[in-house]
Design brief:
about 120 residues, globular, seven-stranded mixed sheet, four-stranded antiparallel sheet
């Protein structure tokens, strides 16, 4: 069983930066794609970014492209999300997820393991 634990969330001013981490424990499928999603109160769960096992394939939501950067350290079983130029609309709970296959995708139905989430709050 794979367990995912997010960390690194917090409260920051608009224009600031944060780095989120997702640590994996238990049985690991190293070649499976992983992703970040986020959900604000009253909103649907929203795709943020996805990454392949060797980091050669990446997808970003249009709302974060150019500001966020996803990366992965296979040896340490850690995935990162570097968030720069943060905006109040980035405020949400951020979730780490692991896919059932090697393919990067924005579809949340492709992911079968989820973390508990970490809160990111951006003040104006």
């Amino acid at each position: 069983q794979v367990q995912l634990v997010e960390s690194g969330g917090g409260l920051v001013q608009a224009g600031g930066s944060l780095r989120l981490l997702c640590a994996a424990a238990g049985r690991t499928y190293d070649r499976d794609a992983m992703a970040w999603f986020r959900q604000a109160p009253g909103n649907e769960r929203e795709f943020v970014a996805s990454i392949s096992w060797n980091s050669t394939m990446k997808l970003y939501a249009d709302s974060v492209k150019g500001r966020f950067s996803i990366s992965r350290d296979i040896a340490r079983n850690i995935m990162y999300l570097e968030m720069n130029t943060l905006k109040p609309e980035d405020t949400a709970i951020y979730f780490c997820a692991r896919a059932r296959s090697i393919y990067v995708t924005k579809d949340r139905r492709a992911y079968d393991y989820w973390g508990q989430g970490t809160q990111v709050t951006v003040s104006s």
